[in-house]
Amino acid sequence: MEDPLAKKPSAQVRGKSKKAKRVSAVSPLEEGEELTDTGTKDGRIFNEQNFLQRAAKPLSVDKWIKRTKVDFLGIPSCVGFGLHADTHRFLILPSMGQTLLSILEDRGTLSEKVVLHIACRILDVLKFIHSSEYVHGDINAENVYIKSEGQPQVSLAGYSHAFRYCPGGQHVEYRQASRIPHEGAVEYISVDSHKGAGKCGPTIVVCSANIFLNRFSVPVLEKNAVSQFIGLL
C-alpha cells in the first residue's frame, strides 16, 4: 500500500475523538485510552467494550485471519478497561496510528490506489464483524486509523454504535421511527439510520462505502476502478 503519510513526515498523531472532563483523582490517560463520565451499563463506552469482548476476541480474530487467508485484519483488541469511582468508564486500546480525518486535513487528497486499498481493508473488517452478527454503525474518517511504520496498516475503530443485528442467525425486525434516529456521524450514516432503523446490516455498508469514496475528495476515479471496488460489496 502506498503510504499516505510519506509526504507528511511532520504530521502529528492525533488522539481519538471521544473526550470527556477529567477529574483530579484520575491519573493521566495512556496513549489510546478513552474516558467517559458515565458508569451506567448502557453508555457508548460500555457498548464498545461489550462488542470488543464478545465479537472481537483476539482468538476469534486470529482464527478468521487464518481461515480467510488475509495478512492483516484492522480491528483493535481491548487491552484493558475499568471504572473509576463508579462514575468514569474507560477503555485502553493499542495505538493504531493516525486518523484518516487528520491525514485528509493535512493532505487534502489521496491517490486512487490509497483510497481503494483503505476501502478494501475496511471491507475486510466489516466482513468479520458481520460474520459475528454485528454491524459497525458509525463508519467515518475519524474512526479509520492508518499506521505507517513498516507495512502500512488500516484499522477500523469506534464501535460505540455497534449492534448485534442478527442474533442466532435471526435478523432483527426492520422498524422505523424508533427511539434512536440519526446515530453516528450524520454525513455517513445510511438513510435507514436517519429513519431510526439503523440496524439493517448490509444497507449501511453499501451506503457508507459509496459516501466513503466521494468523501475523500480524490481526483475522478477511473470507471473500472470504481466497478472493481463495488464488485467487492
Automatic annotation (TrEMBL):
PROSITE patterns documented for this protein: PROTEIN_KINASE_DOM
InterPro entries listed in its UniProt record: CK1_Ser-Thr_kinase, Kinase-like_dom_sf, Prot_kinase_dom
Pfam families tied to this protein: Pkinase
Domain of life assignment: Eukaryota
Gene3D superfamilies linked to this entry: Transferase(Phosphotransferase) domain 1
GO molecular-function terms, A-Z: ATP binding; protein kinase activity
Region Disordered, residue ranges: 1-40
Protein kinase domain: residues covered: 1-233
PANTHER family in alphabetical order: CASEIN KINASE-RELATED
Record's protein name: Protein kinase domain-containing protein
Source organism of the structure: Muraenolepis orangiensis
Upper classification of the organism: Eukaryota, Metazoa, Chordata, Craniata, Vertebrata
